[in-house]
Amino acid sequence: MNTYLTNEEHEAFRTKIRDFAEKEIRPIASMLDQEAKFPTEQFKMLAEMGVMGAPWPKEYGGMGLDYLSFAIMVEELSRVDAGVGVTMAVHILSQSPIFFYGTEAQKQKYLPQMTSGKKIGAFVLTEQNSGSDASKMETTADRDGDFYVLNGTKIFITNAPHAEIYIVVALTNPDLGPRGASAFIVEKGWEGFSIADPYDKMGIRSSHTCELNFNNVRVPKENMLGREGEGFRVFMSALDGGRIGIGAQSLGIAQGAYEEAVTYSKDRVQFGKPIAFNQAISFKLADMATKIRCSRLLVYSAAMLRDAGKPYGMEASMAKMHSSDIANQVCNDALQIHGGSGYMKGMHVERAYRDAKITTIYEGTNEIQRVVMSGFIVGKPPKEQSAAKTVKKAPGSATGIRKQMILTEGTIEEKVAKLVESLKADGYDFTTGLDPQTPIPQADRVVCVGKGIGDKENLELIEKLAYQAGAAIGSTRPVAESLRYLPINRYIGMSGQKFTNNLYIAVGVSGAGQHLKGIKKASTIVAINNNANAPIFKNCDYGIVGDLAEIVPLLIRALDNGEPKREVEQPKKIKRAVPKKLPPTYKIHVCNGCAYEYDQSLGDSESDIMEGTPFAMLPYEWICPECGEDKNQFISN
Questions:
Q1: Which residues, including other chains, have CB under 8 Å from residue 105's CB and lie 6 or more apart?
Q2: 386 pLDDT exceeds 60?
Q3: What distance in Å separates the CA atoms of residue 260 and residue 292, rounded to the nearest whole number?
Q4: Using one digit for the tens of pLDDT, what is the confidence trace for 59-92?
Q5: Under a CB-based contact definition with an 8 Å cutoff, are residues 150 and 214 in contact?
Q6: Is the pLDDT score of 383 beyond 80?
Q7: What is the pTM of this model?
Q8: How far apart, in whole angstroms, are the C-alpha atoms of residue 82 and residue 617?
Q9: For FRET with 309, which of 38, 70, 113, 437 sits at 20 to 30 Å CA-CA?
């Protein structure tokens, strides 16, 4: 590689990784993409090569190489398969917080397992309401003696199903926002820690990405990284290095697509000569080469700054932003050069075109990279004195306000009877019915089946339940797409059918975030699952925990009125449960001059009075924010 930034050792390492990628990954890259298959055997080979901890010291099982070597490795892997490249990048990224913030005991325990490749790592940050704005996380970690108890859901986690060591950030003091976040090392298999099925992604399909659920997961206090309250700092500092990794991935994608375009343009003959000699094509190739060269210099220089111990945050953002932008441009031009052939499945440029898009999104969107860079250039904006203080809201259900009545008292028969009684009290008439194949958006009621039902023959029970409940039959995405129990048009979720009508009965559905988005407008949600920690129970109106094989037959009998179901042309819309707003347990104080009301739950942001401050605790010099009356001019109401 013609670059003055690398030496002979770097180029020898490049050759080693490139030879491996060409021999072991390229022959199966198209298959990995089409089948969304993780290259398990190939990562075992990489582990045997000793590169799974390339930039970390040999004392912890690493190779003792510099970060530039790491960037070269990710680039060369991504040149052939971007999914393999990002898997490696995130694995190295997850080791960073342990190396820089871990105790010696933590380093000795976890790093050798990860650098050897025996265990893969994952970096667990993103949440449903905490994407670009990472400070809005809602996952909590409450101290309980010698443990922290984690609760919450993380989404879009790379390496999730194959990792065994997870670096997780959660709020130990939610009132402090990001200053109240702490970082933890979590191991696969701990009670209450579950992993959803991989997302079906547009690109990087050989890399698997999942949702993680933490339900009362007990983490030993010894597994905290750094001190309590340092979690946000731990993760943000790691992301600077991670952006170099994504810049390198983008560079590799662009390099691979460019090489394919050069080869094709030399072979493809039109108008009596190879198309490479048509100026329209040759100029494209020249522009592509220039863009790639610029990206390589940006990525390598950011890595070298890191190796030199110099600040590199802005340069890492530049490298990530520029490289991912040009990767999309280069792949677009490479596909255009291939013409119709490039649009076909199985072509490298078609796969690269799909792979490139994600690089502008993860590890901080390119819009966020510009925010980061401008912050380095002009500094932080002045505080807006007139801006009202944002009131932090408690995390809510993904499906909105729900009754969350989990039936726990009595026998299974009594719980089922109570459920049916409650549904009838809500206005549901189970003497009516509809065709179970009614399109989901048109169905008044749906019985949705999840993977928890087990074998396909159990669908017979679901069909009987749907008949007695007067419902259509739907499913989660894995049941339709992976298990193929139902047609693909029956799955419900953000990317599938949306259910916005009355009764939704979830049988064996865990409640992944993507699924919950498809049912958030349902009037009533019923959950039946044998896992008490399943997220669906935090998003339902009624729930029963127990064996589906026992509960479902009882529910079928309880809904059976002994007569055929009658059709209803226009079912009435059942109102959603809205809890009554309770009056405050404290007095509201009203200004005698302008009738301004001081509510302690809101405080007074203009005077730096925090939420929850009782009127009696207000400073003596505090005055009405509306008219300036003294505190003693307020009367209680």
A1: 222
A2: no
A3: 14
A4: 999 999 999 999 999 999 999 999 999 999 999 9
A5: yes
A6: no
A7: 0.82
A8: 58
A9: 113
Place of tokens 């409650």: 422
Per the listing, tokens 């960037």 go with 71
H helix count then E strand count, the chain: 16, 21
What confidence tier does 244 reach under pLDDT thresholds 50, 70, 90?
Answer: very high
Torsion sign (Cα): 488, 492, 498, 502: positive
3-state helix, strand, coil in the chain (%, to 5): 45, 15, 35
Average pLDDT, the chain: 92
CA distances (Å), 178 to each of 232, 431, 474, in order?
A: 6, 52, 40
Distance CA 482, CA 387 (A): 50
Given the DSSP bridges, would you call strands 634-636 and 597-598 parallel, antiparallel or unpaired? Answer: unpaired
The token pair at 318 is 């530049």
DSSP secondary structure letter of residue 480:
H
**Could you give the CA distance from residue 536 to residue 137 in angstroms, rounded to a whole number?**
20
What's the rounded Cα separation, in Å, for the pair 520 and 124?
25
> What is the rounded CA–CA span in Å between residue 158 and residue 160?
5
How far is the C-alpha of 602 from the C-alpha of 605, rounded, in Å?
A: 8
Q: Which of 24, 127, 363, 567 is catalytic?
A: 363
**259 within 8 A of 111, measured Cβ to Cβ:** no
Q: What is the pLDDT of residues 141-187, one digit of tens each?
A: 999 999 999 999 999 999 999 999 999 999 999 888 888 999 999 99
Q: Which ranges constitute the DSSP H helices of 268-389?
A: 279-307, 313-338, 348-357, 366-378
What DSSP designation does 499 have?
A: -
Spatial neighbors of 450 by CB under 8 A, at least 6 apart, are 475, 476, 478, 479, 506, 507, 508, 509, 510, 529
Q: Which pLDDT belongs to residue 439? A: 95
Which contiguous run of DSSP H or E holds residue 542?
A: strand 542-545
40 token code pair: 């398990």
**Residue 117 phi/psi, 5° resolution?**
85, 5
What does the alpha-carbon distance between residue 539 and residue 526 come to, in Å, rounded to a whole number?
9
pLDDT at 133: 82
**Which ranges constitute the DSSP H helices of 510-547?**
513-516
Identify which of 556, 529, 548, 530 has the alpha carbon closest to the alpha carbon of residue 471. 556
Location of structure tokens 């042309």:
569
Q: Can 384 be counted among the known catalytic residues?
A: no
Contact 630, 588 (CB under 8 A): no
According to DSSP H, which parts of 409-482 are helical? 412-425, 459-469, 477-481
